[in-house]
Amino acid sequence: KAGVTQTPRYLIKTRGQQVTLSCSPISGHRSVSWYQQTPGQGLQFLFEYFSETQRNKGNFPGRFSGRQFSNSRSEMNVSTLELGDSALYLCASSFLGDSTEAFFGQGTRLTVV
Amino acid sequence: GQNIDQPTEMTATEGAIVQINCTYQTSGFNGLFWYQQHAGEAPTFLSYNVLDGLEEKGRFSSFLSRSKGYSYLLLKELQMKDSASYLCAVTGTALIFGKGTTLSVSS
Lengths: 113, 107
Description:
The complex is a heterodimer.
Chain A: E1 5-7, E2 10-13, E3 19-24, E4 31-38, E5 42-50, E6 53-57, E7 64-68, E8 74-78, E9 87-94, E10 103-104, E11 108-112
Parallel strand pairs in A: 2-11
Antiparallel strand pairs in A: 1-3, 3-8, 4-5, 4-9, 5-6, 7-8, 9-10, 9-11
Chain B: E1 2-5, E2 9-13, E3 18-26, E4 31-37, E5 44-49, E6 53-57, E7 60-65, E8 70-75, E9 84-91, E10 95-97, E11 101-106
């Protein structure tokens, strides 16, 4: 079966702009989680969506937001980009979230200049 | 809050055994995952522990002690391809990762 698909793979944006990243989970998976990965901080949890509802949220500013559609596809949006937002953004899908194995996409590499 | 600690870096030689430790403090705990991440790639699932004890899967084993907030990943018969980052993650209200342990295997 198809894995988790994230688009785009690479993105370059300017400070102050906004960006939308997309994640298509594995068919049948209802939970989608987003993570920011940087060399110094590792994988930091942004938020989790389950059946179109945000179920959990990490400690990121309100500039980071997301949503999930009825087909479980998810998008995350970052507004007013800052240089520090440069990172690899990973999406993970799982059947139920919590105690079920998460499968990761290849990520979107965002560079803010 | 949640806090997950693991060593930043470890080195080992081919054929050896290495143990990567992970300690955690979390409000709400369902289980503990280990993931492997090669440079430039997505993390991939290695193991999941819910109950205390050792889970063995081929060359990899994972141990959990819930009362001590402690887990380890044991890698046997190390191969060069095992050079990667190993991520400990706990699940309670969400799946939260430690910063990862970068393992370098040399010949």
